[in-house]
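Budget justification note: compute hours in this period were largely spent on complex prediction jobs such as the one shown. Inputs:
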Amino acid sequence: MKLATSSIRSAALARAMCRAMAMVALPLPALSAPYVPQSGTEVLETLPRRGTAASATLLRQRAQLAAAPRDPAVAAEAAQRYIELGRASSDPRYFGYAQAALAPWWNAVAPPVPVLLLRATLLQSSHRFAEAIRDLDAVTRADPTNAQAWLTLATVQVVRGEYDAAVRSCGRLSSLADQLASMTCLANARAGSGQLAASERLLALALQRSDMGVGGEAGAESASRAGLRLWAMTILGELAARRGDAAVAEQRFRQALGLAPDDSYLLGACADLLLDQGRHAEVLVLLRDHLRVDSLLLRHTIAVQRGSLVPAPVAASAIAELQARFDAAARRGDTIHQREQARFELKLRHNAHAALGLALANWQVQKEPADLRILLEAALAAHDPAAARPALAWRRQQGMEDSSIAKLAHALEGGAP
Amino acid sequence: MIPLQAALICLFLLFIPGAARAHKPSDSYLTLHVSTAPAVPDSAASATSRERPVIDGRWDIALRDLDFAIGLDTDGDGQLTWNEVRSRHADIAGYAMPRLGLAPGCRLRVTGQQVDHHTDGAYTVLLLQGDCQPGAAVTIDYKLFAGLDAQHRGMVNLTVDGRSQSAVLGGDHTRLVAGGGDGGAWRQASGYLRHGIWHIWTGYDHILFLLSLLLPAVLAQGWRPALADVLRVVTAFTLAHSITLSLAALQVVALPSRLIEAAIAASVAIAAFNNIWPLVQGKRWLAAFAFGLLHGFGFAGVLGDLGLPKGATVLALATFNIGVELGQLAIVAAFVPLAYAMRSTRFYKLFLVKGGSAGIAVLAMVWLVERATV
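Corresponding output:
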């Protein structure tokens, strides 16, 4: 019902905008003929975050940085700000601004600790995990009480599938940070290695306890607290989904989305849950305002195609748009979207062999459940179980639990799908 | 059909709302076409015709990035209108062009700015035109947004005479040299080699001078003396012009180029007249040597126009000279066997030697008058 009304409203809006928007919506080839806009008042571009308090702070920080580009405290503060903006908006340009702020130390062997920590964060965001770990090790050696460094290190280790090391890093965190941070860290690390149900229970308990202690903090502290709670709720939802309890997972994701409706990681997790249940129309509603983010446009397009919700040529335009984005990344030599690209090839282009190649390359870099899942799906579709064998052996060795991965593994290892 | 398509677009809009532009790292797109097609030879220009490469292209830069760098949103409403953008066109060009880092030897100017869209939004398109000194390679040292966005990259596509090369510039890799990764010495050398060959083939005065000396050379009795005469003439010419080319290129001797060009024209006329009314007969190699000295200064002028990079002079000089010799040998190899085969015919002795030389002499006189009076 909600979908119906929103569609009708959108249809009216779309009709009204149709003439004006037609040019923008049509997919454009790599270099089309440039044009001279017909009217001087035509809006060419909408800029991000203008006129807000946050943008005023940003302007002040830019001025400070310009005045003292080699002051590590000023640079770290600006970089930190850009990284936060980049995370919040899933806009990678901010990571470029952050890196520019750190430029005087970007290739330095031993930058000041705050710079080193941010450099590691940026390296992590461009999936240069080994270098990120190198920097984080340096930070924790120089400052063993740096809670943020231990937390970031644990996160990178989980992404790489180094669960034992991650558990150790979380252990160091437990004496430095509050309970919710260390419990979330631990649950995230141990869920990968055969202790999913216990991790989920513990984390739910920690979150419940921290609910009771909410209030009383001011400003930055409450903001970082909110970020931590959001992270805990997201992981809790993911653990339920991996356990196969879609209803509880959805409830947790929706609750978290109530706090952060634009969090693209959360939106992606929730969309995947809906896609697995064939609720394609709901995916469109969930993601319709977030299509700037490649990974969300991907899920949106999968829902469009699977749900047969629009005529084939329209779906084809969306696929062309995605292809253009992957091409743009490829031209830069970026490989951070290999997981999404594998999914794109498999689900939208139906090119299982290309998907398998990408999924295998991605598996060399990162080992989250979603990475394993796309690898197994591609291997199954390409009728190439041998390609998945090393990853399946790794899964058995770690004891990774995930209901959809278990089904895929069963199918690949000779069982009925 | 058209209403159906319109309907599909509207339906598409329903599912892909307006803000379907991607979040992506910052890129600019630079496309340059360089063409070095030689100018159409026409009388006087022919002898001195130099290839002057012409560049045209476009550079697409995201409006959002330009706003971050120099501020385009004058009314601060978060929306960039065409009026706001075009009122800053001069500032945009003034900001961007120096950061392209185009090396001296080539020039580019912005002839206009338009708009295009890429996956992440609207871009200004700088329309570019320019040229290079003959032989100068397009070299870029890309620095756009370098201090602001360390992940910005320039996607460059450079096409020189139909051959394309692409590069992703920015970060630790900012340089691009047309025709060769980072301008390998060998690439540069082979460029000068080609210029040497090309110059002798398109420098009609040099060819006609050589032909004037070779026309009677094959008339010696027997193939041995004929070949010996050809060898003497070619070797003397080569030696002489190598000497003066080196002296001039290394700036030991400098002579005004107009005087040289006129003297070269005169040398062609004299060599041609000598075939009609012989003054020097047995020792044509001496004439070849004496006038070869003049032609060497002419070659040096070309080498100077090519825009010699510092430090590459000796290599450039050597390869350019080798190119000239190879081009010259090709002409000799094509001409001498033909001439030798025909040498006993009346057609050759009368029509080619006398008539051909007369034609050459007339043409050379025209050049002489033009070059002396320009």
